[in-house]
Protein 1
Amino acid sequence: GAVVSQHPSRVICKSGTSVKIECRSLDFQATTMFWYRQFPKQSLMLMATSNEGSKATYEQGVEKDKFLINHASLTLSTLTVTSAHPEDSSFYICSASGGQLRGYEQYFGPGTRLTVT
Amino acid sequence: EDKVVQSPLSLVVHEGDTVTLNCSYEVTNFRSLLWYKQEKKAPTFLFMLTSSGIEKKSGRLSSILDKKELFSILNITATQTGDSAVYLCAGAVGTSYGKLTFGQGTILTVHP
Protein backbone atom coordinates (compact mmCIF):
# COMPACT_ATOMS: atom_id res chain seq x y z
CA GLY A 1 0.00 0.00 0.00
CA ALA A 2 0.86 3.70 0.20
CA VAL A 3 1.19 4.59 -3.46
CA VAL A 4 1.28 8.21 -4.52
CA SER A 5 0.98 9.27 -8.14
CA GLN A 6 1.73 12.54 -9.84
CA HIS A 7 0.54 13.82 -13.16
CA PRO A 8 2.00 14.84 -15.48
CA SER A 9 5.45 13.34 -15.07
CA ARG A 10 6.93 15.89 -17.42
CA VAL A 11 5.58 19.14 -18.81
CA ILE A 12 6.96 21.86 -21.03
CA CYS A 13 5.13 25.15 -21.14
CA LYS A 14 5.65 28.63 -22.47
CA SER A 15 6.55 31.56 -20.29
CA GLY A 16 3.45 33.30 -18.95
CA THR A 17 1.19 30.27 -18.98
CA SER A 18 -0.07 28.32 -15.98
CA VAL A 19 0.57 24.67 -15.26
CA LYS A 20 -1.34 22.36 -12.93
CA ILE A 21 0.28 19.34 -11.30
CA GLU A 22 -1.84 16.69 -9.61
CA CYS A 23 -0.84 14.54 -6.66
CA ARG A 24 -3.00 11.56 -5.72
CA SER A 25 -2.80 9.03 -2.92
CA LEU A 26 -4.08 5.87 -4.54
CA ASP A 27 -4.72 3.51 -1.68
CA PHE A 28 -4.94 5.58 1.49
CA GLN A 29 -6.45 8.80 2.71
CA ALA A 30 -3.88 11.54 2.91
CA THR A 31 -4.75 13.95 5.66
CA THR A 32 -1.72 16.03 4.76
CA MET A 33 0.11 16.55 1.51
CA PHE A 34 3.43 18.29 1.04
CA TRP A 35 4.87 19.96 -2.02
CA TYR A 36 8.62 20.09 -2.58
CA ARG A 37 10.84 21.60 -5.19
CA GLN A 38 14.22 20.25 -6.16
CA PHE A 39 16.84 21.93 -8.29
CA PRO A 40 19.56 19.88 -9.99
CA LYS A 41 22.07 18.46 -7.53
CA GLN A 42 20.23 20.02 -4.62
CA SER A 43 18.03 18.66 -1.89
CA LEU A 44 14.28 18.83 -1.54
CA MET A 45 12.97 22.19 -0.41
CA LEU A 46 9.56 22.16 1.21
CA MET A 47 7.28 24.67 -0.47
CA ALA A 48 4.03 24.17 1.38
CA THR A 49 1.97 21.88 3.56
CA SER A 50 -1.67 21.34 2.79
CA ASN A 51 -4.41 19.73 4.81
CA GLU A 52 -7.65 18.60 3.24
CA GLY A 53 -10.25 21.31 3.27
CA SER A 54 -8.05 24.08 4.57
CA LYS A 55 -5.62 26.63 3.19
CA ALA A 56 -2.07 25.57 2.56
CA THR A 57 0.75 26.71 4.82
CA TYR A 58 3.59 28.10 2.75
CA GLU A 59 7.25 28.12 3.71
CA GLN A 60 9.07 31.39 3.99
CA GLY A 61 9.99 32.80 0.61
CA VAL A 62 7.40 30.82 -1.36
CA GLU A 63 4.85 33.05 -3.10
CA LYS A 64 1.39 31.73 -2.39
CA ASP A 65 -0.13 33.66 -5.29
CA LYS A 66 2.32 32.10 -7.69
CA PHE A 67 2.12 28.54 -6.41
CA LEU A 68 -1.56 27.83 -5.83
CA ILE A 69 -2.27 24.73 -3.81
CA ASN A 70 -5.64 23.09 -3.49
CA HIS A 71 -6.31 20.02 -1.35
CA ALA A 72 -9.91 19.38 -2.23
CA SER A 73 -10.18 15.78 -1.06
CA LEU A 74 -8.34 13.24 1.05
CA THR A 75 -6.77 11.74 -2.06
CA LEU A 76 -6.00 14.72 -4.26
CA SER A 77 -3.90 17.85 -4.03
CA THR A 78 -3.01 20.14 -6.90
CA LEU A 79 -0.20 22.64 -7.38
CA THR A 80 -0.73 25.31 -10.01
CA VAL A 81 2.27 27.31 -11.11
CA THR A 82 0.78 30.57 -12.37
CA SER A 83 2.39 32.83 -14.95
CA ALA A 84 5.33 30.47 -15.19
CA HIS A 85 8.81 31.81 -15.91
CA PRO A 86 11.98 29.96 -16.90
CA GLU A 87 13.26 30.21 -13.33
CA ASP A 88 10.28 28.09 -12.24
CA SER A 89 11.73 25.20 -14.19
CA SER A 90 12.40 22.52 -11.62
CA PHE A 91 11.49 19.07 -10.35
CA TYR A 92 8.33 19.24 -8.24
CA ILE A 93 7.63 16.37 -5.87
CA CYS A 94 4.62 15.81 -3.67
CA SER A 95 4.31 13.56 -0.68
CA ALA A 96 1.29 12.34 1.19
CA SER A 97 0.89 11.48 4.83
CA GLY A 98 -1.83 9.45 6.45
CA GLY A 99 -1.25 11.31 9.68
CA GLN A 100 -1.15 9.70 13.09
CA LEU A 101 -2.82 6.50 11.89
CA ARG A 102 0.14 5.79 9.65
CA GLY A 103 2.88 7.07 11.91
CA TYR A 104 3.14 10.35 10.02
CA GLU A 105 5.23 8.62 7.38
CA GLN A 106 5.41 10.48 4.09
CA TYR A 107 5.07 8.65 0.81
CA PHE A 108 6.52 10.41 -2.19
CA GLY A 109 5.13 10.72 -5.66
CA PRO A 110 7.40 10.14 -8.66
CA GLY A 111 7.81 13.86 -9.32
CA THR A 112 6.99 16.22 -12.17
CA ARG A 113 9.70 17.82 -14.26
CA LEU A 114 8.59 21.29 -15.33
CA THR A 115 10.41 23.11 -18.08
CA VAL A 116 9.36 26.66 -18.89
CA THR A 117 10.58 27.98 -22.23
CA GLU B 1 15.18 27.60 11.97
CA ASP B 2 15.38 23.82 11.61
CA LYS B 3 18.56 22.54 10.02
CA VAL B 4 19.81 19.16 8.81
CA VAL B 5 23.41 18.79 7.66
CA GLN B 6 24.83 15.79 5.87
CA SER B 7 28.41 14.80 5.29
CA PRO B 8 30.23 14.07 3.17
CA LEU B 9 28.48 15.80 0.30
CA SER B 10 29.89 13.27 -2.11
CA LEU B 11 31.70 9.99 -1.87
CA VAL B 12 33.31 7.76 -4.48
CA VAL B 13 34.10 4.16 -3.57
CA HIS B 14 34.65 0.78 -5.22
CA GLU B 15 32.38 -2.18 -5.08
CA GLY B 16 32.78 -4.09 -1.86
CA ASP B 17 33.74 -1.06 0.22
CA THR B 18 31.83 -0.07 3.34
CA VAL B 19 30.58 3.50 3.63
CA THR B 20 29.24 5.59 6.48
CA LEU B 21 27.05 8.58 5.79
CA ASN B 22 26.51 11.18 8.46
CA CYS B 23 23.55 13.35 9.36
CA SER B 24 23.32 15.93 12.13
CA TYR B 25 20.15 17.78 12.91
CA GLU B 26 18.69 20.69 14.80
CA VAL B 27 14.94 20.27 14.61
CA THR B 28 12.47 21.89 16.94
CA ASN B 29 10.01 19.38 18.42
CA PHE B 30 11.98 16.56 16.85
CA ARG B 31 10.09 13.31 16.46
CA SER B 32 12.11 11.12 14.12
CA LEU B 33 14.94 10.98 11.60
CA LEU B 34 14.35 9.50 8.19
CA TRP B 35 16.71 8.24 5.52
CA TYR B 36 15.81 8.14 1.84
CA LYS B 37 17.56 6.98 -1.31
CA GLN B 38 17.04 9.04 -4.44
CA GLU B 39 18.01 7.86 -7.88
CA LYS B 40 16.52 9.53 -10.90
CA LYS B 41 13.09 10.25 -9.52
CA ALA B 42 11.51 10.82 -6.14
CA PRO B 43 13.07 9.56 -2.90
CA THR B 44 12.40 6.04 -1.72
CA PHE B 45 12.10 5.38 1.98
CA LEU B 46 14.88 3.51 3.78
CA PHE B 47 14.54 3.97 7.53
CA MET B 48 12.70 5.92 10.16
CA LEU B 49 14.48 6.25 13.50
CA THR B 50 12.70 7.45 16.57
CA SER B 51 14.60 5.95 19.49
CA SER B 52 18.23 6.46 20.37
CA GLY B 53 20.69 3.60 20.17
CA ILE B 54 18.49 1.09 18.36
CA GLU B 55 19.99 -0.02 15.10
CA LYS B 56 17.68 -0.63 12.17
CA LYS B 57 18.85 -2.98 9.47
CA SER B 58 17.72 -3.84 5.99
CA GLY B 59 20.06 -6.12 4.11
CA ARG B 60 23.40 -4.38 3.72
CA LEU B 61 22.05 -1.10 5.04
CA SER B 62 21.82 -0.13 8.67
CA SER B 63 21.20 3.06 10.57
CA ILE B 64 21.25 4.33 14.11
CA LEU B 65 20.20 7.50 15.88
CA ASP B 66 21.86 9.35 18.75
CA LYS B 67 19.34 11.80 20.19
CA LYS B 68 21.81 13.14 22.73
CA GLU B 69 24.33 14.15 20.07
CA LEU B 70 21.59 14.94 17.50
CA PHE B 71 23.22 12.65 15.01
CA SER B 72 22.49 9.67 12.79
CA ILE B 73 24.60 7.47 10.55
CA LEU B 74 23.71 5.28 7.62
CA ASN B 75 26.06 2.38 6.93
CA ILE B 76 26.22 0.45 3.70
CA THR B 77 28.41 -2.64 3.68
CA ALA B 78 29.73 -4.50 0.63
CA THR B 79 28.62 -1.69 -1.66
CA GLN B 80 27.37 -2.44 -5.15
CA THR B 81 27.05 -0.22 -8.22
CA GLY B 82 23.30 -0.21 -7.65
CA ASP B 83 23.87 1.65 -4.40
CA SER B 84 24.97 4.70 -6.39
CA ALA B 85 22.42 7.39 -5.56
CA VAL B 86 21.81 10.46 -3.49
CA TYR B 87 21.11 9.61 0.13
CA LEU B 88 18.94 12.09 1.96
CA CYS B 89 18.23 12.36 5.63
CA ALA B 90 15.35 14.37 7.01
CA GLY B 91 14.22 15.43 10.44
CA ALA B 92 10.51 15.07 11.18
CA VAL B 93 8.75 17.52 13.41
CA GLY B 94 6.44 16.26 16.14
CA THR B 95 3.86 18.89 15.33
CA SER B 96 3.06 20.54 12.01
CA TYR B 97 1.67 17.31 10.61
CA GLY B 98 5.04 15.61 10.39
CA LYS B 99 6.84 18.24 8.36
CA LEU B 100 10.25 17.11 7.09
CA THR B 101 13.40 19.18 6.85
CA PHE B 102 15.85 17.62 4.44
CA GLY B 103 19.61 17.70 4.46
CA GLN B 104 21.48 18.54 1.29
CA GLY B 105 22.18 14.91 0.53
CA THR B 106 25.25 12.76 0.02
CA ILE B 107 26.01 11.71 -3.54
CA LEU B 108 27.39 8.18 -3.43
CA THR B 109 29.12 6.77 -6.49
CA VAL B 110 30.16 3.13 -6.46
CA HIS B 111 32.56 2.08 -9.19
CA PRO B 112 32.84 -1.54 -10.35
Note: The mean pLDDT of chain A is 90.
Protein 2
Amino acid sequence: DGGITQSPKYLFRKEGQNVTLSCEQNLNHDAMYWYRQDPGQGLRLIYYSQIVNDFQKGDIAEGYSVSREKKESFPLTVTSAQKNPTAFYLCASSIRQLSNQPQHFGDGTRLSIL
Amino acid sequence: RKEVEQDPGPFNVPEGATVAFNCTYSNSASQSFFWYRQDCRKEPKLLMSVYSSGNEDGRFTAQLNRASQYISLLIRDSKLSDSATYLCVVNNVRGGSQGNLIFGKGTKLSVKP
Protein backbone atom coordinates (compact mmCIF):
# COMPACT_ATOMS: atom_id res chain seq x y z
CA ASP A 1 0.00 0.00 0.00
CA GLY A 2 1.23 3.49 -0.80
CA GLY A 3 1.49 5.82 2.13
CA ILE A 4 3.51 7.56 4.77
CA THR A 5 4.99 5.59 7.64
CA GLN A 6 6.09 7.20 10.86
CA SER A 7 7.94 5.43 13.62
CA PRO A 8 7.93 4.92 16.47
CA LYS A 9 4.33 5.51 17.44
CA TYR A 10 5.36 6.49 21.00
CA LEU A 11 8.71 7.83 22.13
CA PHE A 12 10.09 8.91 25.46
CA ARG A 13 12.98 11.29 25.81
CA LYS A 14 15.27 11.71 28.76
CA GLU A 15 16.52 15.15 29.64
CA GLY A 16 19.54 16.13 27.56
CA GLN A 17 18.93 13.42 25.01
CA ASN A 18 18.47 13.80 21.26
CA VAL A 19 15.83 11.61 19.66
CA THR A 20 15.06 10.96 16.01
CA LEU A 21 11.63 10.41 14.52
CA SER A 22 11.41 8.48 11.29
CA CYS A 23 9.23 9.36 8.31
CA GLU A 24 9.19 7.32 5.09
CA GLN A 25 6.90 7.67 2.08
CA ASN A 26 6.45 5.55 -1.02
CA LEU A 27 4.13 7.96 -2.81
CA ASN A 28 6.96 9.39 -4.95
CA HIS A 29 6.17 12.83 -3.50
CA ASP A 30 8.78 15.54 -3.83
CA ALA A 31 7.75 17.64 -0.82
CA MET A 32 7.78 16.53 2.79
CA TYR A 33 6.87 18.34 6.00
CA TRP A 34 7.10 18.05 9.75
CA TYR A 35 4.45 19.48 12.07
CA ARG A 36 3.94 19.58 15.75
CA GLN A 37 0.48 19.53 17.36
CA ASP A 38 -0.15 20.44 20.98
CA PRO A 39 -3.48 19.71 22.71
CA GLY A 40 -6.21 22.06 21.51
CA GLN A 41 -3.83 23.70 19.07
CA GLY A 42 -3.47 23.78 15.33
CA LEU A 43 -0.59 22.19 13.48
CA ARG A 44 2.61 24.21 13.45
CA LEU A 45 5.22 23.75 10.76
CA ILE A 46 8.69 22.77 11.96
CA TYR A 47 10.62 22.05 8.75
CA TYR A 48 9.84 21.29 5.15
CA SER A 49 11.71 19.98 2.15
CA GLN A 50 10.89 20.56 -1.48
CA ILE A 51 13.51 18.26 -2.92
CA VAL A 52 16.31 15.90 -1.93
CA ASN A 53 19.23 17.58 -0.14
CA ASP A 54 17.22 20.74 0.47
CA PHE A 55 15.11 21.79 3.43
CA GLN A 56 13.79 25.00 4.95
CA LYS A 57 12.85 26.13 8.43
CA GLY A 58 9.20 26.46 9.22
CA ASP A 59 7.64 28.56 11.94
CA ILE A 60 9.07 26.72 14.96
CA ALA A 61 12.38 25.18 13.85
CA GLU A 62 14.41 25.98 16.97
CA GLY A 63 15.51 22.85 18.79
CA TYR A 64 14.91 20.60 15.79
CA SER A 65 16.98 19.37 12.86
CA VAL A 66 16.21 17.40 9.71
CA SER A 67 17.90 15.78 6.74
CA ARG A 68 16.69 14.79 3.29
CA GLU A 69 19.26 12.42 1.82
CA LYS A 70 16.67 10.32 0.02
CA LYS A 71 13.41 11.27 -1.60
CA GLU A 72 11.55 8.72 0.48
CA SER A 73 12.89 9.74 3.86
CA PHE A 74 12.70 12.88 6.01
CA PRO A 75 13.81 12.15 9.59
CA LEU A 76 13.33 14.72 12.35
CA THR A 77 15.71 15.01 15.30
CA VAL A 78 14.41 16.61 18.46
CA THR A 79 17.50 17.96 20.16
CA SER A 80 18.14 18.68 23.82
CA ALA A 81 17.79 22.36 22.95
CA GLN A 82 14.04 21.84 22.51
CA LYS A 83 12.88 22.50 26.05
CA ASN A 84 9.24 21.57 25.56
CA PRO A 85 9.26 18.57 23.23
CA THR A 86 6.11 16.84 24.48
CA ALA A 87 3.70 16.88 21.54
CA PHE A 88 2.17 14.90 18.70
CA TYR A 89 4.53 15.00 15.70
CA LEU A 90 3.09 14.61 12.23
CA CYS A 91 4.94 14.05 8.99
CA ALA A 92 3.24 14.88 5.70
CA SER A 93 4.03 14.84 2.02
CA SER A 94 2.65 16.35 -1.16
CA ILE A 95 3.34 15.86 -4.83
CA ARG A 96 5.17 19.15 -4.94
CA GLN A 97 5.47 22.13 -2.67
CA LEU A 98 2.69 24.00 -4.38
CA SER A 99 -0.07 25.77 -2.56
CA ASN A 100 -2.85 23.99 -4.40
CA GLN A 101 -1.61 20.56 -3.43
CA PRO A 102 -3.14 18.90 -0.40
CA GLN A 103 -0.83 17.20 2.05
CA HIS A 104 -1.15 13.62 3.21
CA PHE A 105 -0.16 12.61 6.70
CA GLY A 106 1.49 9.72 8.46
CA ASP A 107 -0.17 8.46 11.63
CA GLY A 108 2.11 10.42 13.92
CA THR A 109 4.57 9.97 16.78
CA ARG A 110 3.72 10.94 20.35
CA LEU A 111 6.79 12.20 22.17
CA SER A 112 6.92 12.58 25.93
CA ILE A 113 9.60 13.53 28.44
CA LEU A 114 10.64 10.96 31.02
CA ARG B 1 -6.92 38.78 13.17
CA LYS B 2 -5.69 35.20 13.21
CA GLU B 3 -4.65 33.74 9.87
CA VAL B 4 -7.23 30.97 10.03
CA GLU B 5 -9.98 31.09 12.60
CA GLN B 6 -12.58 28.49 13.52
CA ASP B 7 -15.18 28.13 16.24
CA PRO B 8 -13.74 25.34 18.41
CA GLY B 9 -17.21 24.02 19.32
CA PRO B 10 -18.13 21.44 20.36
CA PHE B 11 -21.13 21.18 18.10
CA ASN B 12 -23.38 18.53 19.62
CA VAL B 13 -26.03 17.37 17.14
CA PRO B 14 -28.41 14.43 16.88
CA GLU B 15 -28.01 11.80 14.19
CA GLY B 16 -29.62 12.91 10.95
CA ALA B 17 -29.14 16.61 11.62
CA THR B 18 -27.59 19.09 9.24
CA VAL B 19 -24.64 21.02 10.64
CA ALA B 20 -22.48 23.78 9.18
CA PHE B 21 -19.07 25.11 10.13
CA ASN B 22 -17.50 28.35 9.04
CA CYS B 23 -13.87 29.31 8.90
CA THR B 24 -12.45 32.78 8.28
CA TYR B 25 -9.03 33.56 6.86
CA SER B 26 -7.11 36.80 7.00
CA ASN B 27 -5.15 36.92 3.76
CA SER B 28 -7.21 37.90 0.75
CA ALA B 29 -4.47 36.56 -1.54
CA SER B 30 -4.98 32.96 -0.38
CA GLN B 31 -5.87 30.70 -3.29
CA SER B 32 -6.18 27.17 -1.97
CA PHE B 33 -8.56 25.88 0.67
CA PHE B 34 -9.16 22.47 2.17
CA TRP B 35 -11.16 20.74 4.86
CA TYR B 36 -9.45 17.98 6.81
CA ARG B 37 -10.96 15.65 9.36
CA GLN B 38 -9.04 14.58 12.45
CA ASP B 39 -10.22 11.84 14.77
CA CYS B 40 -9.14 11.85 18.40
CA ARG B 41 -5.42 11.09 18.69
CA LYS B 42 -5.13 10.38 14.98
CA GLU B 43 -3.61 12.14 12.00
CA PRO B 44 -5.58 14.64 9.88
CA LYS B 45 -7.11 13.22 6.72
CA LEU B 46 -8.13 15.22 3.69
CA LEU B 47 -11.90 15.50 3.50
CA MET B 48 -12.21 17.75 0.48
CA SER B 49 -10.68 20.62 -1.40
CA VAL B 50 -12.76 23.78 -1.67
CA TYR B 51 -13.27 25.24 -5.11
CA SER B 52 -14.40 28.73 -6.04
CA SER B 53 -17.68 27.47 -7.43
CA GLY B 54 -18.37 25.33 -4.37
CA ASN B 55 -18.28 21.57 -4.43
CA GLU B 56 -20.16 18.62 -3.08
CA ASP B 57 -19.10 15.12 -2.14
CA GLY B 58 -22.01 13.00 -1.00
CA ARG B 59 -23.35 14.48 2.23
CA PHE B 60 -20.61 17.10 2.39
CA THR B 61 -20.73 20.51 0.70
CA ALA B 62 -17.95 23.08 0.78
CA GLN B 63 -18.36 26.72 -0.17
CA LEU B 64 -15.94 29.60 -0.58
CA ASN B 65 -16.86 33.26 -0.10
CA ARG B 66 -13.89 35.33 -1.23
CA ALA B 67 -15.53 38.68 -0.57
CA SER B 68 -16.04 37.86 3.09
CA GLN B 69 -12.98 35.61 3.31
CA TYR B 70 -14.62 32.55 4.71
CA ILE B 71 -15.15 28.96 3.76
CA SER B 72 -17.87 26.70 5.00
CA LEU B 73 -18.54 23.00 5.37
CA LEU B 74 -22.08 21.64 5.43
CA ILE B 75 -22.77 18.09 6.57
CA ARG B 76 -26.20 16.69 5.84
CA ASP B 77 -27.80 13.66 7.49
CA SER B 78 -25.11 13.45 10.18
CA LYS B 79 -23.84 9.99 11.12
CA LEU B 80 -22.29 8.90 14.37
CA SER B 81 -19.10 8.29 12.39
CA ASP B 82 -18.94 11.98 11.47
CA SER B 83 -17.88 12.76 15.04
CA ALA B 84 -14.42 14.27 14.73
CA THR B 85 -12.58 17.57 14.62
CA TYR B 86 -12.78 19.40 11.30
CA LEU B 87 -9.74 21.45 10.32
CA CYS B 88 -9.92 24.41 7.98
CA VAL B 89 -6.74 24.75 5.92
CA VAL B 90 -5.59 27.69 3.80
CA ASN B 91 -2.43 28.20 1.78
CA ASN B 92 0.23 30.57 3.05
CA VAL B 93 0.99 33.47 0.71
CA ARG B 94 3.42 35.38 2.89
CA GLY B 95 7.02 35.01 3.92
CA GLY B 96 9.57 32.29 3.36
CA SER B 97 7.17 29.40 3.63
CA GLN B 98 4.90 30.43 0.78
CA GLY B 99 3.21 27.45 -0.75
CA ASN B 100 2.77 25.81 2.61
CA LEU B 101 -0.51 25.34 4.36
CA ILE B 102 -1.89 27.01 7.47
CA PHE B 103 -4.11 24.84 9.65
CA GLY B 104 -6.94 26.11 11.82
CA LYS B 105 -7.31 24.72 15.32
CA GLY B 106 -10.40 22.83 14.31
CA THR B 107 -14.09 22.59 15.11
CA LYS B 108 -15.19 19.63 17.15
CA LEU B 109 -18.34 17.81 16.08
CA SER B 110 -20.11 15.26 18.23
CA VAL B 111 -23.04 13.38 16.70
CA LYS B 112 -25.30 11.72 19.26
CA PRO B 113 -27.73 8.82 18.73
Note: Chain A is about 0% helix and 50% strand.
